[in-house]
Amino acid sequence: MSKITRDEFARQFARFIGKYDRFLISGHIRPDGDSIGACFSLGHALVQMGKEVLIITDGDAKRYVELMDPLPMFPEDRPVKDAQRLFATGRNYAFVILDCSEPERTGRAAQAIMYAEASITIDHHITSKEAADFNYAEPQISSASELLYWLYKLCAVPISRSMGKALFMGLVYDTGGLRHSSTTADSFQMAADLKRKGVDTTYLTNKLLHTKKLAEMKALSAAISASRLYKGVTPEGEEIQILISYLSLGDMNRGGFTGSECDGVVSLLNEIEEAETSVFMRELSNGTIRVNMRSKHVLDVARVAALFGGGGHVRAAGCTLTVSASAAKAQLLEAMSHQLSALEGIPGEIQNAGNHEGSEAGDASI
Ligand SMILES: [Mn+2]
To answer: What is the pTM of this model?
Structure first.
């Protein structure tokens, strides 16, 4: 949580973008729709002010970048220390980090903070740190793109159609189509304003949320086949189920899909009615396990992820574990059991379950 108000930060932000002429802009590693949307909205805002902009990404961003009006992108094969040479004037630049707060979370852009004249972070994650010269985070807002939208309003930055497309992409991506609990009346107001500006909301929503490659559907199919439900009981006595699925590199090779085709799997898994919480684990090439989690209304998965050095939001979070798949599953269940009074597979954690009254909840949990 930031120590300053949105109004106070808006004044810092306006001074920051007014002061510098060249901006290197990065979102987080393994970019998503909000990360790219936030970067492109700011990039177009700065270009319309006559500034020079370079967007730097780390990981496959094509699916999102191709929906945007083009901006100069930092070449894949250039080291970050060359950044200032890539600006036409070759002079120093300011570095902007969006949709995350730690330079390390940007991936290959991380060292840019050393070469930059000044730096700023604008984020909406709960795990926010203050690593730059100026830092601002609002963990309760839906997306970095929505936060930027309201900052542009406060700074009287006119929102062009190109910016509108980017902002809408970020909003729709991070809210699952104005659907997640992070969606507020302000989010709808922003969407309505962007629609009025001529943003093709139908096209963007269909492209972002309802278009899947065959390999992605095969990844989902494999993840469903490999899934198992675990029963738990909340402190309020509600019975819930946690779905856990794991795909090894071997599973993925056999299925003909790679990591990028697995990105949307966890959200689709959590559409399964029985699953209050869904955990999708997949083996990365270096033998570690990437964990993505979604919950509907009970578990705070950000708290679970934080125990393993990860982060995210209450209903959507992720972390990376360097243990075997079975150990990862056991450790995640153990972490989740702290928020429950009982959880299948965690016999040591059920001392509060059932209250010795032989309740159905107690029976279901073991
Ligand atoms: Mn985001």
So the answer is: 0.80
> Is 163 contained in some domain?
yes
How far does the centroid of ligand 1 lie from the alpha carbon of residue 124, in Å?
7
Tell me the per-residue pLDDT of 327-345, one tens digit each, with 9 for 90 and over.
999 999 999 999 999 999 7
Checking if the pLDDT of 365 tops 50, the result is no
Strands (E), 61-130: 94-98, 118-123
* In a shared domain, residues 88 and 218: no
The DSSP element (H or E) to which 104 belongs, if any, is none
Residue 290 in tokens: 């990437």
Indicate the pairing of strand 316-321 with strand 289-295: antiparallel
Pairing verdict, β 94-98 and 239-247 = unpaired
Angle in degrees, CA 118, 43, 319, rounded to 5: 75
pLDDT in the model for residue 320: 97
Q: Determine the distance separating the centroid of ligand 1 and the alpha carbon of 348, expressed in angstroms.
A: 36
With H, G, I as helix, E, B as strand and everything else as coil, classify residue 165: helix
Alpha carbon of 290 to ligand 1 centroid (Å): 18
183 and 324 housed in the same domain: no
**What is the domain range of residue 347?**
214-365
Q: How many C-beta atoms surround the C-beta of residue 160 within 10 A?
A: 16
Q: How far apart are CA 250 and CA 268, in angstroms?
A: 22
